[in-house]
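A reminder before we start the practical. When you read a complex entry, don't treat the lines as separate problems. The point of joint prediction is that each chain is placed relative to the others, so the output describes one connected object in space. Small molecules and nucleic acid strands, if listed, are placed in the same frame. In the example below there are two entries. Take a minute to note the order of the lines before looking further.
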Amino acid sequence: MENVLSYMTFIPVAGMIVVLLLPSNSPNLIRWVSAAFTVPPLLMACWLYANFDQSTPGLQFVEKAPWIPAYNIQYFVGVDGLSISMVLLTALLCFLCIFASWGIDKGVKGYFALFLLLDAGMMGVFVALDFFLFFIFWEVMLLPMYFLIGIWGGPRREYAAIKFFLYTLFGSGLMLLAILALYFSSEPHTFDMTVLISQADKFGTQTLPMWPFKEWGWGFQHAVWMALFIGFAIKIPAFPFHTWLPDAHVEAPTAISVILAGILLKMGTYGILRINFPMLPVATADLAFWFLGALGAWNIIYGAFCAMAQKDLKKLVAYSSVSHMGYVMLGMASFTTQGINGAVLQMFNHGTITGMLFLLVGVVYDRAHHRDIEGFGGLAAIMPIYTGVTALAFFASMGLPGLSGFISEVLVLLGAWQKYPWLTVVGASGVVLTAGYLLWTIQRVYLGPLNEKYKGLPEINGREMFTLVPLGAIVILVGVYPNVVLDLLRASLDQINQIVIPHLHS
Amino acid sequence: MDLKNLDSLSFFFPEIILTGTILLIIVLDLLVKSHRMLATIAMVGCVGSLVATIDLYSAQHGWLFHRMIVLDNFSLFFKVITLVATLVVIWISLASNEIRRVYQGEYYTLLLTCALGMFFMASSSNLLMAYLSLELVSLTSYVLTGFLPHDRRSSEAALKYLIYGGVASGTMIYGMSWIYGMTGSLDYATIQSALAQNSVNKVALFMAFVFILAGFGYKMVFVPFHMWSPDVYEGAPTPFTAFLSVASNAAGAAIMIRFFFPGASRMVADGDWTFVSGVEWPHVVLFVSIITMTLGNLCALNQRNVKRMLAYSGIAHAGYMLMGIVVLNNNGLQAILFYVIVYLIMNLGAFLVVVMIANATGNEEIESYRGLASRGAIFPAACLAIFLFSLTGIPPFAGFIGKFFLFAAVLERGGGVFVLLAVIAIINSVISLYYYAKVVKLMFLDSPDPGAKSLTIAANHFTLLVPLTVLTIVFGIYFSPLIHYTSQSLRFFVK
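Here is the predicted structure of the whole assembly.
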């Protein structure tokens, strides 16, 4: 099992090849084969969880091999406390989303092949520790995502797909420049993230003599930080780069929305923690207040207000993602143990909760073929189980004590309060707004008199419950006993935090 | 070594074999009627020439024919590139309906002559030789562009090409005459030592370089010498367009690098070059590079014809390649060589699919690609998508690695203006995604027009399409051999 991370990354690729070789006239075979190829990564993820050493902050399950020796590019993967939660989340959501995609009946072969490629790309991003490898995986996700939204999406899918593609490509272009800048500043030139982190003091901080950096007092490190940050902020998505998200979410098929919100958005914050924090600590300390803290608080409020104004159920959930990712940014910016742990826990929780929310929206959309909030009413009367599960997800998203969302939001706010009381006040008011739009939605969609049109809607079926139950269980488990996840994170996050803290200006 | 005429011949086998093949085709054209036979002979000639070229890698570097041409790894690299491009293009020509209608004998004769001219472009070490080789390539290109009988677009394109070519090469030879006047020699080595004495007028030298740049720019297709390209790409027979897009571009890069680097610069430190007389020509190239890539990409956005779109995309790619020249070091040059290889693979692949689709639908409008994936052409469509994404520069395709090295060379050089160049190039890549993805969107995301009939693609095209696609992916993931080859190819013979 020493190559477990490589297996987890490349088994889906093997699955893609197998799926492509299957005859396209037997869709069920394709579905089951695809599902079969997501099981080993899930089992390995469980094994990984069981065998992960929680006491050490360092990297584990490391694999290293030269790839392109001429440029010092390596195949280098490994996990630490920061990435393991994301690896677990990816393995789980990819497995569940295969079942959430069961209803796809157009171009089944292409869909599942692309889905498996996407799975491999996401897994690769979270385990890669060589910058070049990281970038390759980062970009490999784009192509399947473009086609998955663009071919199997809703009516405005083409617009949404190309918008997503252009935004992300712009961000990753800047990221590529930043990667190269760091590469050429290291000695000997390397893409190895661990070496780059150990050479963090080589990345200059003297003010650059050119406009506009001269006015702002930015050095090389700040410029690189910003280039990376824009690349990641587009993925998070942080205001003002968030506009691709509602479009992509609304048009994407259900399973892809789950993947988008559950995993892709986490890559932004993951990248900031993995790269910006330890590699560019001075710039992180200088810029965190405005670009993580203040922007995070703004994200919370802005996302919540936008969500409140939505008429489309899926768009509402999409904006709630913008809002919830704001907590992650705010928590990160605090540089306190609670804040940063809360931020990563929030990443994990948001993955499970929003995953549930999108699956639930998908359930009702499959039946009613629209997502208009005003168009429903009284669904609780005919779909009681469905309504119950929805209530669980909504309350978790709202941060009800006993459910996972509460723990992470409280940790974030506790951590942030010690540094930025005013931002925390703003951020905490987001909790109220969240409760506002979610409760209002429950009232409009599930309570009240039954809309006669939907009298015959069938109750949620077994396959749909199968995708929801594991997520629901995790939501409750983490809500009651958050240490199942927090214990994994603590040591590594503390180490990352300690790199930045000495550079903070009181 | 510095060889006389007869001694040189033993290092001249690639050209001799090619010339022999050309003559053989002319004769056989009178005797045999099968065009397949002529194409086969042309391909055999190319393979023979390729073997002879590879054989020369073990030979000693030196001047041939009284310093007229030079034998070094750099020229051998471009000979290999030209021959591979010619082989692929002959294959594409065999598959093309357009070529089936024209005079086969003349077509292959001219194509090989054009390749022969490119050999000389890559290896000439004398201004006169450079001019003659460029003219040889141009003249054959004019004829081949206008090769479609009774096709007004083809004739119009040939005429435009001729007029632009005449102006560009006239300007170039005027510049060369200035150089000759200032240094008293046409030989690169003598020119270099004369310039190194620093006694020439800087302004005059600068003007001479700008004039000469016109000729190179016209071959490599950068702004403002690009105007011919969209019309010629559209009007010429598609296989020849494919040839022009990669081989002509590569030969232009070769002649430019040969003149500006071993010719007018000198290597100072390990891999860094400096211009011998202190004229700041790289700044001109830098602005040309920025304008070329931006204009190419912006113009490509609204094209309706796929060949015109690829023409503008080719202009943009020439702009990217110029970035490697601007930085004035071996890393930049190596990045260009690398880019030449991957551009050859992906662009020829794209043109091959264009020919396949044109054979089936009879036109080259982008609109005719609508719903291609669901009209029985999913495999070619998928391959075209791979080539187009590779041209955009998205991993894991070879085009990304090509761009990666260019960006790396620019950023390694560092400094404000180079960072600006890199940022502009990145923005350009994003712009280019829009028009490449537009074709992909039409093929995959849109459903076909009602009544569009499904296409039958002849399976024999796949024998070439599959290797090109596989190489595009393989070189995107494992490119160590290419790094090795390009760094070996960067050996110039200077004295």
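Discuss with your neighbour: The two ends of chain B are 8 Å apart (CA to CA). What might explain this?
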